[in-house]
Amino acid sequence: MKPALNKRGSVPAALLLSFISAQARAFSLWGPGAPLPAYKIAIVGRSFSPAALTVPAGQKFKLIIFNKNAEPSEFESFTLHREQVVTAGAQTIVFLGPLTAGSYGFFDDFHSGVTGTLKATDDKPSAKAAPAKDPAKAKP
Amino acid sequence: MLASAIIVFREVLEAALVVAVILGATKGLKGRSAWVGWGIAAGALGAVVVAAFMDKISQALSGVGQPIFEAAVLLAAVLMLGWHNVWMSRHGKRIAQELKRLGSEVNLGSKSMTAIFVATAIAVLREGSEIVLFLYGVAANGAGAWSIVLGGVLGLLGGVAVGFALYLGIMKIPVRHFFRVTGWMILLLAAGMASQAAAFLNQADLLPSIRDSVWNTSWLLSGQSIAGNVLKTLVGYTPDPSALQLVFYAGTILAIGGLMKLVQEKQKERS
Question: Which of A68, A72, A67, A70 is nearest to A110 (CA)?
Fold first, then answer.
């Protein structure tokens, strides 16, 4: 069940907001089908832990980011199109996927040099046959 | 110091470019500097408030409050810019004539300037809240705070300087083309914001991306470069847009552009 694509830009902001918040609540309370698998990552000191995370390609999942520091960080990735502040000592959820198999870099926008990698992989023990994909086409 | 200068520069630059386009596009309107100035002030104040409540915002709406807030604020800015453009397609000609004839500014009332005020405030608020959070972290960290604050000031000055250069460039556009060019600039600015809002709605898991990376031009211009960032702000450049972003981008251009056309046709009929 996908949310309808409203006519954007022309929709009054208030209407759009109420639509959005209603959707947000609906999604979290009942969720579209099975609950999404969750992966956890923490920002500890000046590094991501773990700095490399492997996730299945081709399916949606949640990335839960913990900030163990006493200062805010911003999880950001150009290839994943994500940008989300994680306040001091808090956690945040970033929805991701379905991803094409490949490696995706992310970083802490508030602290230069703090980086990590998300590896989306097709090879997982699964009863279903993996969809044929050209590995050469995967993102760098 | 360099790291903080770069981070602050990038955020200030984005806000400064938006403000420069808005300030340029309102040439000839009486009181525009004051409205934009108050917009900057309100945005700065809002940035501090948003940064202070970022915890609450993040946890709102079952943990997706932040991307939804970003999307809502961006879409509000899109509406304001769209409204301004439609309004200008009605009054632009008269303003251009007055500018050419008398070289004086036209007073069209404060109602028309509210959109400018809000759009400016939003641009400053979005980038400003990130700066506040970043600098708060620096302050909490303590060590070497002064050099980082100095870096922040340098970044601020650098960003404002680039925005000012863009503004001066816009003001050089000849009067007879002026409002057509600035109209397009505002239109593309709004479309880019709508596309960013689409990305945030997908980030909040509200809308499907439909298709990721419809194309990828990061070999030509990476989104991480300064030029890529400038183009992202001004025209919504994304090296690998999703289909959802493209739909929002095109939808915004069609919606605002269509309304502008409609208003212009009506004006022609009347005269």
Answer: A72
CA atoms within 13 A on the CB side of A30: 5
Asked if the C-beta of B204 comes within 8 angstroms of chain A's C-beta atoms, the answer is yes
CB-based contact B58 A74, cutoff 8 Å: no
Say whether A21 and B68 touch across the interface (CB within 8 A). yes
The pTM of this model reads 0.85
CB contact under 8 A, A7 and B255: yes
Q: Which fold has domain A38-124?
A: Immunoglobulin-like (2.60.40)
Give the phi and the psi of residue A118 in degrees, each rounded to 5: -110, 125
Single-letter residue type at A30: W
B75 touches A: beta carbon within 8 Å? yes
CA pseudo-torsion sign B242, B43, B52, B129: positive
Yes or no: say if B186 and B25 are a contact pair by the CB < 8 Å rule.
yes
Q: Do residue A88 and residue B137 have CB atoms under 8 angstroms apart?
A: yes
pLDDT tens, residue by residue, B211-260: 888 999 999 999 889 999 999 999 999 999 999 999 999 999 999 999 99
CB B43 within 8 A of CB B198: no
ipTM confidence: 0.86
